[in-house]
Design a protein that fits this description.
By secondary structure, the chain is mainly α. The chain has helices at 2-6, 21-31, 44-63, 65-69, 78-103, 109-118, 134-155, 161-189, 193-212, 224-229, 237-255, 280-290, 294-307, 309-328; strands at residues 265-267, 272-274. The chain contains 14 helices and two strands, in the order H-H-H-H-H-H-H-H-H-H-H-E-E-H-H-H. Strand 1 (265-267) and strand 2 form a beta hairpin. The structure holds 3-hydroxybutanoyl-coenzyme A.
Length: 329
């Protein structure tokens, strides 16, 4: 599946015998849970995979503002509008923390943005789906931010210091994001029949793409083995996905809406929910750029970047002027 798509195959992990002295010393620090800081020696591959993951995480935060931004002017009340605006502003801040964390690895903001705009860098597949009703804003907070929290809590313990510390701050804000989404779903599911139907429709459209957020199955995950060895990935894609399903199904039950999965059932032996097959061909199509909103999302980001060029130029000119004044003084 994905491994075939990029024709790299699932990457194996170097054994101690294949490691250089420096790599063995580095791995010993990882194994001893000693945080790696930007100025520490690190294998080039460690630096590269962190730049890949952290920059893509940052892109996800920034692109993730677009689906919700679609509903700021159409929020059903001033209170809901204010909450949504606060959440979207938080996401922008999360993106900036993560771009800054990635910059400590030696990549520039311009390079990261160029990689996003050229399609070389990804952002989370989930943000390529449209927000068709106000209930989608509830489903995004409840499911997408809920899945993000599930994935991000372990990242607070990841081996790279700046990333782990950014995650601690981000996770505190994510819990508000998830709660406000669930509160919207609660209001709708307790509302009129039409409102409850809106909540059900949103769950039907966002449930499976939310499960895809955790990445391909472990057996297909190109990076997992090495990311786990380097304690970037503390829990696997499938482990996090399972935890998310187990946590979310009772929440849907409380809302009185039905999971769109006829195969969903509690397995008392495993103490987990069994769930149906995920359509990985849909996931692959979205990753290839053929999702419902891929082109629109990228075009919007490119236009925003171009339209903001004068602000960046003005800020740089101002900074240069101040620096030259300080030199003279
Ligand atoms: N969307 C897009 N690409 C995905 C993906 C997804 N949901 N899941 C996996 N991929 C990509 C990977 O990036 C990788 O491609 P690449 O080599 O070009 O980068 C490929 O599929 C193989 O997947 P792997 O499982 O081998 O890759 P990883 O080990 O990197 O695992 C991941 C994927 C679990 C997403 C991991 O990168 C990760 O934990 N990232 C940090 C969390 C993150 O980025 N979350 C995105 C959502 S942020 C968000 O939701 C904002 C919130 O405020 C709403």
């Amino acid at each position: 599946m994905y491994a075939q798509m990029v024709d790299t195959g699932v990457r194996s992990v170097k054994g101690q015998a294949e490691m250089t002295t420096e790599e063995r010393a580095f791995q010993a620090r990882i194994d001893a849970d000693i945080r790696i800081e930007p100025k520490d020696w690190m294998p080039e591959a460690y630096r590269r995979t962190l730049i890949r993951q952290v920059s893509q995480h940052a892109h996800s935060e920034i692109v993730g503002m677009l689906p919700e931004g679609n509903w700021v002017t159409r929020a059903p009340s001033l209170k809901r509008k204010a909450i949504l605006m606060a959440k979207i502003q938080d996401e922008a801040g999360h993106g900036l923390y993560l771009y800054s964390a990635a910059e400590t690895l030696g990549i520039t903001r311009d390079q990261m943005v160029a990689d996003l705009h050229s399609g070389k860098a990804k952002y989370s597949s989930i943000f390529n789906y449209p927000t068709l009703s106000w209930a989608d804003i509830g489903a995004i907070g409840w499911l997408v931010d809920g899945a993000a929290i599930m994935n991000q809590i372990p990242l607070c313990r990841c081996s790279f210091g700046p990333y782990a510390r950014a995650m601690v701050r981000i996770c505190k804000e994510e819990s508000f994001h998830q709660r406000q989404g669930y509160d919207i779903m609660l209001s709708l599911s307790r509302g009129t029949a039409e409102q409850k139907a809106m909540a059900q429709d949103a769950l039907n459209r966002w449930w499976w793409p939310s499960l895809m957020m955790f990445g391909p199955p472990d057996a297909e995950s190109v990076h997992s083995a090495q990311s786990a060895a380097w304690k970037i990935k503390i829990l696997s894609n499938d482990e996090l996905r399972q935890r998310f399903v187990d946590q979310t199904v009772p929440q849907a039950d409380y809302l009185g809406i039905t999971m769109p999965d006829p195969d969903l059932q509690w397995n008392p032996e495993r103490n987990h929910y069994e769930f149906g097959a995920i359509d990985w061909s849909e996931f692959m199509e979205v990753l290839k750029g053929n999702g419902p909103c891929n082109r629109d999302r990228l075009a919007t980001r490119v236009k925003a970047w171009d339209d903001g060029a004068w602000v960046r130029d003005a800020a740089m000119a101002h900074a240069a002027k101040r620096a030259s004044r300080q030199q003279v003084a």
